[in-house]
Amino acid sequence: MTDKDPDPRYQRIWDVIARIPPGRVMAYGQVARLAGLPGRARLAARALRVAPDELALPWFRVLGAGGRISLPEGSEGAAEQRRRLEAEGVRFERDRVIAEAWGGAADDLDALLWGP
DNA sequence: AACTTGACTAATC
DNA sequence: CGATTAGCCAAGT
Fold it and tell me: Which among A93, A102, A109, A113 is placed 20 to 30 Å from A31, CA to CA?
C-alpha cells in the first residue's frame, strides 16, 4: 500500500493518556516518558491535539509542567478542562492543580503498562 | 530544503 | 510570582 502506517509514537501516547485514572492528572513530559519518548513533551501535546475524537481520550487530565493548564487562559478549552477536573474531585490552587492529584498516576500507569 | 510555530520544560533573573 | 532564554523536535508554510 502507498498509505503511511500510523505513527506508533502517537499510538503509544494515546494509550498512556487513555489509561490515566479518573481524578488524577499527568504532565505532558510524564506522558511522553511513559510512552517511551523521553523529552518529547511537545510530541505528546501534538498527539493529543490531533487525536481522533473516537478514542474519547481524557485530554483534560493532561496538564503542563507543575500542574498548570496549558491552554490559553480565558479560552473555552481551559475553562472546560478545569471544570471537568474539578468534577472528578481534582482541586486547584489558583491556576495550578494541587500536588496530590498528580502523585499516584505514574505509579498506576507504570503497573498497567509494564507489569499487569 | 529553509524557516516558523507550538496543548513543552527547566533554568535563570 | 512573572518574564526571559535556551533546548528540543515534529509538523506546517
Answer: A93
How many CB atoms sit inside 10 A of residue A86's CB? 12
**DSSP strand E in A5-97: where?**
26-27, 62-63, 92-93, 96-97
pLDDT tens, A2-47?
A: 555 779 999 999 999 999 999 999 999 999 999 999 999 999 999 9
DSSP conformation letters of A98-113: -GGGGSSHHHHHHHHH
Question: For A43, left (φ over 0), alpha (ψ -120 to 50), or beta?
Answer: alpha
Confidence (pTM)? 0.91
Grid cell for residue A56:
474519547
Residues whose beta carbon sits under 7 Å from strand B: A 27-30, 41-42, 44-46, 48-49, 59-60, 62, 64-66, 70-71, 77, 81
